[in-house]
Amino acid sequence: MTQMLNLALGAVLVTILVILLVVFLNRRGRGKDEYYNDIESKQQREKGDEEREELVSFEGGQDLTIVDVLEAPGEVIGKANHGTLYKAYLQGSSTVRLLRFLRPVCTSGLQEFVSEIQFLGSIRHPNLVPLLGFYSGPRAEKLLIHPFYRRGNLAQFIRDGNSDSHRWGVILKISVGIAKGLDHLHTGLKKPIIHGNLQSKNVLLDRNFEPYVSDFGLHLLLNSPSAQEVLEASAANGYKAPELIKMKDAAEETDAYSYGVILLELLSGREPINEKPTPDEDFYLPSFMRNAVLGHRIADLFHPEILLYSSIDGNAVTEEKILQFFQLAMACCSPSPALRPSMKQVLRKLDEIGT
């Protein structure tokens, strides 16, 4: 009896083991199939992504086509680690555009990038350079499309010794326009934008000397290391607020500092950084101006031709008005962020100075 019971139990155990073995082998085979199916599916998705190219147009860019953008003969007018800026002639629409190529390795994640592009493409203001279109290529290349402004950038305008750069009316017009553009970025949008890279070379001028702020929101499209490189370049050029260490900490006050440096450029014709200062001069323009005040060197505070052209144009400006403008610029460049004016305060003061 006991022997029969043992045989029965043994048979049951053998049966269970056989069943478990069959189940295990089936699952193993199915898992392997699913694994290879997943790899194949992923490869197909990646292949599809590589083959996809897209052109998104915004207000003012409805005439853009992929062929026109890609076949446009271009001239390099600016280079940085994160990309290259081209002046390009679009033959289909017979227009000149600015094309900004962003290196794929420098940009943020695709989902975040597309979201920011849609937001930036919706921003319109008379003193901001609009985004007309965005091209995404088969190798993840990204191209931003902007209008072209024939007078070039403000840095060139000041450095070229153009007599118009010393006309008081032009100086005020440019100063007011930049402040209006910044104020819109800071307070006129549902999601405020800090420029983070405001420089005179990032202000474009039309034939009537109306300024257009460019490059706003660029750091939002870049990954953290590339955005930090943008900040370091701004520091090297003399526009970075002293308290700003990381791009993510940029604020209205740090934009105000950069704006103040531009006002000093307009007023004096000097560059933000003096590469070869004498023992009596300072490396940075705001520091140079502070020392000029302490040394009672009033002639160093503004370009002498401002008063000269003012009398010729009949647009009389007094030395008192010029010094008020200087004081506003220095307030923007205050070492203490809390003491820097907002762009609304700047605009009110410029209105007082201009009347």
From TrEMBL:
Record-linked Pfam families: PK_Tyr_Ser-Thr
Listed transmembrane segments: 6-25
Residue span(s) of domain Protein kinase: 71-353
GO molecular function, one term: protein kinase activity
Source domain of life: Eukaryota
Organism: Momordica charantia (Bitter gourd)
InterPro entries linked: Kinase-like_dom_sf (IPR011009), Prot_kinase_dom (IPR000719), Ser-Thr/Tyr_kinase_cat_dom (IPR001245), Ser/Thr_kinase-like (IPR052451)
Stated name of the protein: Kinase-like protein TMKL1
Key words of the record: Membrane, Transmembrane, Transmembrane helix
